[in-house]
Design goal:
Layout: E1 6-7, E2 13-15, E3 24-29, H1 35-42, E4 53-55, E5 61-63, E6 69-71, E7 78-79, E8 82-83, E9 89-94, H2 98-101, H3 108-124, E10 132-134, H4 135-138, H5 152-157, H6 178-189, H7 197-208, H8 219-233
Parallel strand pairs: 1-5, 3-9, 3-10, 4-9
Antiparallel strand pairs: 2-6, 4-5, 7-8
């Protein structure tokens, strides 16, 4: 069944680079106290920010910017050697107060609507699973959304993004060469490796090891890193 999408046009967009691909899907949380405030800001010309879609906690989906246009959601960003990702991405904001206003789990209705929306977008654009990313993946020095409560595993089970199945992540032992092993894997997945390793590991853990977000290269995190790197190389 086609997802019902409501319209709430934002003026905050411009033309995409001519001839460039749309090959990245970026998931965010709004980080504001409620949906009304978030949508108002994303439509405010003075704020100069926007996204293509907003998904409310009850599953309501709003389109703010046409996919053919460049929305202003990613900011300074990097993934797999690409920069300035606004020009080549679709941005989805999920309503959630975020870490500043009382971060909480994303309701099932919201995740289901987000999944359906992602699947529709993936059907329209050549976006590989490894290029379905968190805002914190592409800007780990500035962002932490959508955060450790976001159900990436559930999305991947339905065909959106990557998740390493059957990889034990419980081992918290700290190998002496952990950082040396972690950094090349982070780079292979897509992170920019000129940032502090602990910052990158924290972003990775928010995405792929949410039960332990501490920025340490423990054995469980290294196992997940290696598994995600293998999956990324196989796309």
């Amino acid at each position: 069944m086609t997802l019902r999408i409501r319209e709430a046009p934002s003026p905050n967009h411009d033309a995409r680079p001519e001839g460039g691909p749309v090959d990245t899907l970026v998931l965010h949380y709004t980080g504001m106290r409620n949906a009304g405030e978030a949508i108002q800001r994303l439509r405010d010309p003075a704020a100069a920010v926007s996204a293509h879609y907003v998904v409310e906690e009850d599953g309501t989906v709003w389109r703010l910017v046409p996919e053919a246009r460049r929305a202003w959601h990613a900011g300074i960003s990097h993934w797999r050697g690409r920069e300035a990702l606004n020009g080549r991405s679709i941005g989805i904001e999920l309503v959630n107060p975020g870490h500043e206003w009382g971060y909480r789990p994303f309701p099932a209705l919201q995740m289901a609507a987000a999944c359906d929306l992602c699947l529709e977008i993936l059907a329209r654009h050549p976006i590989l699973p490894r290029d379905v990313v968190a805002h914190s993946d592409i800007a780990p020095d500035r962002k932490q959304d959508p955060g450790e409560f976001f159900d990436w595993e559930g999305l991947a089970a339905n065909g959106v993004g990557l998740w390493p199945e059957g990889v034990a992540g419980e081992d918290a032992a700290l190998p002496p060469d952990g950082l040396a092993r972690a950094v090349p894997l982070l780079g292979a997945i897509g992170y920019r490796t000129d940032l502090p390793p602990a910052m990158l590991l924290t972003a990775f853990q928010r995405r792929w090891r949410p039960e332990r977000v501490d920025g340490l290269a423990d054995a469980g995190t290294l196992a997940r890193l290696a598994a995600v790197a293998r999956l990324s190389a196989g796309d």
